[in-house]
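Bug #77: duplicate submission created two jobs. Keeping one. Sequence:
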Amino acid sequence: MSKLDVLNDQDIRGRVTADAPLAPFTWFRVGGPADLLFQPADSADLASFLTRLDSNIPVIVIGVGSNLLVRDGGIDGAVVRLTARGFGKAVRETDDRIRAGAALPDKRLAAFARDEGLGGLAFFRGVPGTVGGALRMNAGANGVETRERLLTATAIDRSGTTHVFTNAEMGFSYRHSSVPAEMIFIEAVFAGVPSTPDVIQAEMDAVEAHRQAAQPIRDKTGGSTFTNPANGKAWELIDAAGCRGLRIGGAVVSEKHCNFLINVDDASGYDLELLGETVRARVLETSGVRLEWEIRRVGRFAPGQVVEPFLGQE
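Kept job's structure:
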C-alpha cells in the first residue's frame, strides 16, 4: 500500500497527514515537512498502519522532539508520532512495578512513581523526553540510567508483530540500545523501590535544581549535543577548543553549557548542524577527540545546502 492509499484507508483510526510540518514538534523549532505523519490511536492502530504501509517506505519515530534535529529538506517516507492519549498512561502493576506508555514524558513517569511511593525513578525528572526515547538511547540523568530500572520493553515491528524485550535483550550501553531501529517501542515496565513521596520529591527537586543551574532549559535547544567520550566530558573539550558562544547564522553554542546548541534567531536546521560539525572539527583539531552526536539528526538537506564541511553523516 502506498502513502496515498494509507491516507484514504478507512481502517486507520489515527490521524494521517501528508506533507506535515515537523518544526512545531521539535524543541529546536526547525526542519522541513514529513512526506507522511501518522499519529496512531493506540497500539492496534499502529500495527494496522504498519502492515498496510508499503515495506519500501521508510519509517521514523519521533517523541516530543527534545533530542531531535530535522533537516530543512524534510523527511522521506512516514513519520510516526505516538500520542499521549494512546500511549501516555502509567499504571502500577504490583508493589514495585510501573507500566508506562512510550509517549509518557519522563518527568511524568517520575511524578507518577513519587505519587505511588516508589523510589528509584526520580532521575527521570531530569530527562527531557519520553519513555520511548529513554528506551532507545538508555537516557539518564544525575548518574542514573534507564537500564538500571527497566524490566521489560514492548515494541512493534514493521510487520505489525509485537515483541517483548527483557533488560538483557535491550543491549544497553552508554546512550544506546541495540534493539533494531525498525522496532517501535510502545510501553515499558520499570521496577521501583519503596520510599515516601516526600523523600522522592526531594530527589526530584535536586535533579531539577541541577538542570536549571547548569543547562539552558528555557531556550530552543535539543538537550546535550554530543555524548561524553571515554574518560572525559564533551563540554570541557568544547570549551577548551574555544567554542563557547560560537555562532553560525541563528545558531549559537550556549554560554551557560557549551554542550548545548541554541536556536537564538530563526536558525535553520542547517545552521544548527553546521555549527555542531564546526565544533566537532575544532575539538578534533585541539584534542584529537572525535565527538559523537547525541542529538538525532534525520531527514534530507534542502537544495543548495553544502554537505562537504561535515565530518561525517553517521
